[in-house]
UniProtKB/TrEMBL annotation:
Key words, A-Z: Coiled coil
Cross-referenced Pfam families: ArsC
Organism of derivation: Cloacibacterium rupense
Alphabetized InterPro entries for the sequence: Arsenate_reductase-like (IPR006660), Thioredoxin-like_sf (IPR036249)
Protein name: Arsenate reductase
Family note: Belongs to the ArsC family.
Keyword Ligase in record: no
Alphabetized PROSITE patterns for the sequence: ARSC
Origin superkingdom: Bacteria
UniProt cross-references to SUPFAM superfamilies, sorted A to Z: Thioredoxin-like
UniProt feature coiled coil, ranges: 39-66
Length: 114
C-alpha cells in the first residue's frame, strides 16, 4: 500500500497527490496535521527515508525560527518536536512498504513509483 503524508495547503503536496491520482494508483492519504505521527512512527519513517530527524524539519517555518532554532537538539529531541509540532514536517512524503521519499520533486516521485 502507498501512503502519502499530505497537507492540503501545500502546493507541492497537492501536486504529488494529483500525480498519484492521475496514474490511477491506489493509495491512502494521511492528513498529518490532523492526525500527527507519533514519535515511534517518525522513527520508523526516518528509517524508510534513510534520513536524520534534522533533515525532516522545515527550518524556514516561523515556528522553527521562533521556538527552536537557537538551541541544538539530539535526534530524539528533534523527533519529539516533530511529533508535537507536525507543521514542521517536510512534505509531501510518499511511503511504499519499507521505503519513503520527500516527494517535492514530481520527477523524483515518478522514479520512486516505477
Amino acid at each position: 500500500m502507498i501512503t502519502i503524508l499530505h497537507n492540503n495547503r501545500c502546493g507541492k503536496s497537492r501536486a504529488a497527490l494529483q500525480l498519484l491520482e492521475s496514474k490511477g494508483i491506489d493509495f491512502e492519504t494521511r492528513l498529518y496535521l490532523e492526525n500527527p505521527l507519533s514519535e515511534v512512527e517518525i522513527e520508523d519513517l526516518l528509517e524508510k527515508l534513510e534520513l536524520s530527524a534534522d533533515d525532516l524539519i522545515r527550518k524556514n517555518e516561523e515556528l522553527w525560527k521562533e521556538k527552536f532554532s537557537s538551541v541544538s537538539y539530539s535526534q530524539q529531541g528533534l523527533i519529539s518536536i516533530l511529533a508535537n509540532y507536525p507543521k514542521l514536517l517536510q512534505r509531501p512524503i510518499v511511503i511504499i512498504g519499507n521505503k519513503a521519499i520527500i516527494a517535492r520533486d514530481l520527477e523524483r516521485l515518478e522514479q520512486f513509483l516505477s
